[in-house]
Amino acid sequence: MTARDHNNTRDELCDLIVVGAGAGGMTAALTAAHMGLNVVLCEATAQVGGTTATSAGTLWLPGNRHGRQAGYTDSPQAGAHYLQAISGPDDALDRRHAFLESADTAIEFLERHTALAFASAGEHPDYLEASGAATHGRALSPVEFDGRLLGADFDRVRAPLDDFLLLGGMMANKVDVQSLVRRYRSWKAFRRTVQLVGRYARDRLRYRRGTRLVLGNALVARMLFSLRAAKVELRFETRLVGLDKDGSGRVCGATFESGNSRISLQARCGVVLATGGIGHHAELRAALDPSAFESLTPQSVRGEGLALAREAGAILERHPGDFLWQPVSRVPASGGGHRLFPHLYLDRAKPGLLAVDHAGRRFVNEGASYHHFVAAMIERAADRPAYLICDAAFVRRYGLGVIPPGTRNLRHFERAGYLVIAQSPEELAKRLGIDAGAFSDTIRQNNEYAVSGTDAEFGKGATPVSRFNGDAQHHPNPCLGRIATAPFCALAIWPADAASSSGLRTDADGRVLDIHDRAIAGLYACGNDMASVMRGTYPGPGATLGPAIVFGWRVARHAEATLRSS
User: Fold this and answer.
1) How far is the CA of 563 from the CAs of 32, 141, 557, 558, in angstroms?
2) Residue 537 and residue 483 share a domain
């Protein structure tokens, strides 16, 4: 795969080529189309959404209009203050400033011109305690969407991970999960459960899964619906294999493989790379991730956007850690191998669970954000798993990994090799191969903290994000509970990346830069192909999707201005 020259014959011409139908790419395509550009959106798979579709769909946007309208006090300036506190000053390219300054305008544009709709997530704390951090109003959630409106295109929306679908195909957000878990504890929760399950049952008479779409699926479906309404040309199963340059060195088109054919497209404004970041590109992973951690990105994300851009002269901007992390358990597959289950918020922060390292000792606030939890894991021992420890009563109440709440018989999960069970902490330590004395001391200390309500070591339940994901009905601390009733359980967890922070270096308009920080004419990047403006930090929920959408909008705006001035 190499950059090609202008002597190749191209049979098609458009204004802008967008490569990749995730949040960034679809935003760029939608914005450009509504600005009057002729856009071709090429997607390597048969479905839209990429990593966005399997995410929570949250956008981190300080000072957004929906938060203000809901009565929360926040501003872009407060967001800038927070980012400076956790990652230092803005870079010389002013990309952070561009993100914060443009966020509200981008959302207003999209909601005015497309079917995209957002609501304030209300309480959804930032992930770090620092000056300028917020607990309310900074995160946006996509409004749920009726997938039936897509018609045949409903199957074009990448489904969530199977383990996050209830009853074989029903989506549920955090509020839904709370109702389902408490369905027999209150009339309100029971009524909500009946509504959800009833809608799902009707859906399954006609569809392979539920059509009530929430989280990342709602965001993706709204974008696809809007792309069709804007008559943007979508080409599925069309994978990028080359970037084409003219005699001046400007990127003027791209070459794709589709089936057994090669297709060359030419674009007046250039090419937007939004292929999903590093993903499973073997050489890039080996260079950036020598520990070879597994990736939660779809197998279709192969890093070709980054690789081809580098061949065209682009520079890869490195950040501390390079990746953004999530802790995962390995779920054995019936035919061998395993799939990954990300432990985001359902279990780690709940009372009655702790995490220990290979020495049998705690190493982190279990209620920390997924990224920071894994960062502590890697710092402690990059080549060994950590273990989530609880008792069977905890699993019955809250669930654990893929084990749903209410489960009483855990033997199936033990026989499958997913869970380790023992009748005493000493026996459990022996089965895990860790020091029994240190492990017993850790559990004893946890039980003392549960009674006092204060975690003197790591502050579980003292930080806003841990309290948010704890159990508000549990006292005195929503995140601290005793581990005291046999049998005792252990679940191995490992680091996995969900996205890359390192990526193509761009300017504030998403123009890809070379080693001298000069823009490569006609080449743009957004989403995970673009180096994160957070520069290796993870400030809060939606810290990848927020910038993806904002810079998708900025890329399209710059491309339209370039065409208008030419």
Assistant:
1) 11, 33, 10, 9
2) no
Residue 410 shares a structural domain with residue 361? yes
Of 548, 540, 537, 466, which is closest to residue 62 (Cα–Cα)?
Answer: 540
Indicate the number of domains in the chain.
2
Residue 86, CA distances (Å) to 46, 79, 131, 508, 535 in order:
39, 11, 9, 21, 10
In whole angstroms, what is the distance from residue 493 CA to residue 330 CA?
Answer: 7
pLDDT digits (tens, 9 = 90+) for 356-387: 999 999 999 999 999 999 999 999 887 889 99
- Give pLDDT, residue 186: 86
Q: Count other Cβ atoms within 10 Å, centred on residue 444.
A: 12
Q: Is 478 in contact with 351 (CB distance < 8 Å)?
A: yes
Cβ neighbour number for residue 71 with a 10 Å cutoff:
10
Buried b (16+ CB within 10 A) or exposed e, 106-131: bbebbeebbbbebebbeebbbbbeee
- Per-residue pLDDT reduced to its tens digit, 201-250: 999 999 999 999 999 999 999 999 999 999 999 999 999 999 999 999 99
44 and 27 assigned to the same domain: yes
Decide: residue 152, CB within 10 A, 0-12 exposed, 13-18 middle, 19+ buried.
exposed
CATH code where residue 521 lies: 3.50.50.60
Alpha carbon separation from 427 to 170, 248, 433, 481 (Å, rounded): 39, 70, 10, 21
| Residue 348 included in any domain | yes
Q: What is the pLDDT of residues 55-106, one digit of tens each?
A: 999 999 999 999 999 999 999 999 999 999 999 999 889 999 999 999 999 9
Question: Can you give the pLDDT at residue 4?
Answer: 44
**pLDDT at residue 3 greater than cutoff 50:** no
Average pLDDT, the chain: 94
Same-domain check for residues 385 and 242: no
Of 462, 497, 532, the last residue of a domain is 497
What is the distance between the alpha carbons of residues 203 and 220, in angstroms, rounded to a whole number? 19
Locate 184 and state its tokens: 């027999």
Q: What is the residue range of 349's domain?
A: 323-497
DSSP of 269-331, one letter per residue? EEEEE-S-SSTT-HHHHHHH-TT--EE-S-TT---HHHHHHHHTTB-EEP-TTSEEEEEEEEE
Q: Which sign, positive or negative, has the C-alpha torsion 473, 479, 485, 486?
A: positive
pLDDT at 1 (0 to 100) = 36
The answer to whether residue 135 sits within a structural domain is no
From CA 299, how far away is CA 45, in angstroms rounded?
10
- On whether the CB atoms of residues 57 and 218 are closer than 8 A, the answer is yes
- The pLDDT, as a whole number, for residue 376 is 95
Is position 190 within any domain?
Answer: no
The distance from CA 177 to its chain's CA centroid, rounded to whole angstroms, is 19
- Asked whether residue 551 is domain-assigned, the answer is yes
CA separation, residue 20 to residues 101, 115, 227, 240, 403 (Å): 25, 20, 13, 9, 34
Q: For residue 298, is pLDDT > 90?
A: yes
Q: Which position has the token pair 């539920």?
A: 210
Residue at a domain's end among 497, 527, 552: 497
Tens of pLDDT, residues 301-328: 999 999 999 999 999 999 988 999 999 9
